[in-house]
Amino acid sequence: MPPTLYEWAGEREAFRRLIDAFYDRVERDDLLSPLFPGGVTEEHRAHVTLWWIEVFGGPSEYTDQLGGYERMLAHHRELGISPDQRRRFAETMHRAADDAGLPDDPEFRAAFVGYVEWGTRLALQNSQRDADVVERAPVPRWGWGVAPPWQPS
């Protein structure tokens, strides 16, 4: 059985490094920082870390403690994310993965990029004023897709 993406990445500490590296970059970014007036709080960083942990196969603490998908949806509704902000978010997350020292093997990065693209496009759609959103859904559980991690036998 292959490890989860959460396990492969380095578990909780790796995802916290990722989220801190990401939001450190966001706070210095002219296009993204307006989405977080006053900066990104510790509480926000901790909550987003729990989301990413759950999505990548770790414990379901975001759902259990914070309300799951519906809570994440509420944070994006009517935010008015632009296509340029979505693209910059994705680029910034890719750089943050390097900053945080996440695995750089092609299989992990393909799964990582797949989630970033899927998630940012969904957030873009759900953030528009008259968006037709899915009101209730489980937190996605991202997996390896077609290429599980290569491990020598």
UniProtKB/TrEMBL annotation:
Which CDD domains does the entry mention?
TrHb2_O-like (cd14775)
Entry binding sites for heme: H47
Which terms in the Gene Ontology molecular function aspect does this entry carry? heme binding; metal ion binding; oxygen binding
Q: Which residues cross the membrane?
A: none
Q: Which keywords has UniProt assigned to this entry?
A: Heme, Iron, Metal-binding, Transport
Q: What is this protein called?
A: Hemoglobin-like protein HbO
* Organism this protein belongs to: uncultured Actinomycetospora sp
By its UniProt entry, which Pfam families does this protein fall under?
Bac_globin
Which InterPro entries does UniProt cross-reference here? Globin-like_sf, Globin/Proto, Hemoglobin_trunc
Instruction: Tell me the superkingdom of the source.
Output: Bacteria
